[in-house]
Amino acid sequence: xxxxxxxxxxxxxxxxxxxxxxxxxxxxxxxxxxxxxxxxxxxxxxxxxxxxxxxxxxxxxxxxxxxxxxxxxxxxxxxxxxxxxxxxxxxxxxxxxxxxxxxxxxxxxxxxxxxxxxxxxxxxxxxxxxxxxxxxxxxxxxxxxxxxxxxxxxxxxxxxxxxxxxxxxxxxxxxxxxxxxxxxxxxxxxxxxxxxxxxxxxxxxxxxxxxxxxxxxxxxxxxxxxxxxxxxxxxxxxxxxxxxxxxxxxxxxxxxxxxxxxxxxxxxxxxxxxxxxx
Length: 278
Description:
This protein is mainly β. It has three helices and 22 strands. It is globular, with a radius of gyration of 19 Å. The chain has helices at residues 105-108, 112-129, 271-276; strands spanning 9-12, 23-27, 34-39, 44-47, 50-52, 59-63, 71-77, 84-89, 97-100, 150-152, 157-160, 163-164, 170-173, 180-182, 187-196, 200-206, 211-218, 220-221, 228-229, 234-237, 249-255, 258-260. The protein has two domains: 9-89, Immunoglobulin-like (Sandwich), CATH 2.60.40; 97-276, Glucose Permease (Domain IIA). The protein starts with 8 loop residues before the first strand and ends with a helix. Helix content is 10%, strand content 37%. The strands form five sheets. Strands 10, 13, 15, 16, 17, 19, 21 and 22 form an eight-stranded antiparallel beta sheet that branches. Strands 1-2-3-6 form a four-stranded antiparallel beta sheet, with no helix packed on it. The protein has a four-stranded antiparallel beta sheet with strand order 5-4-7-8, with no helix packed on it.
């Protein structure tokens, strides 16, 4: 699949700090995109009907799901002017779809006992992703949590024995077991579980305003729930735990329930390090 990550799209309706009708959005208006916004301090923002947290400086963040529709409303209610709505035009993306037939049924449909465990663990993850802290750790130059060959991309999907599976919502980075995983931005640990059925060692890092990173298939988790970390801190080690065919890091991101694409925030992976699998 050829994924085109567009250059940051800026919608500038008025200058920073100007009254009433100032709105700035910085980020790609594409499915999976993450956009950082700025409005007049004290303004209220609603996106697609959801009230959005706004910092004292007027900063906020929104995200578009993998299958976001072509248009989504953003409403701004300034403290000293009339409310207005901007309809954001979201570009669609083409995703890799792979069909695999002839697999044993047990590898496609888990047992009742496994399904119950999957549901319990999914509920834990949802609770961790509900956090809506006022921190603005997302306003940063993001870094890759690990570097190496890319073996899985955001948005791809497999159809097994004719049954569509859940799309892949992250980026798989092929690195040997035991390599360090670094925080791509500052944040607070909201989940640290060393043994989930599907994702194995799983760590969730909250970056504020509902934006969070998840790191899957870890061999070791080096931080605890509630711990604050800084960008670049070593937070875990790579592995092949859970349902993984080999050692790698699966890095995913969410804006609350919306599955967003980490690649829309981070710059290109360092080529030399990626080629060496470091």
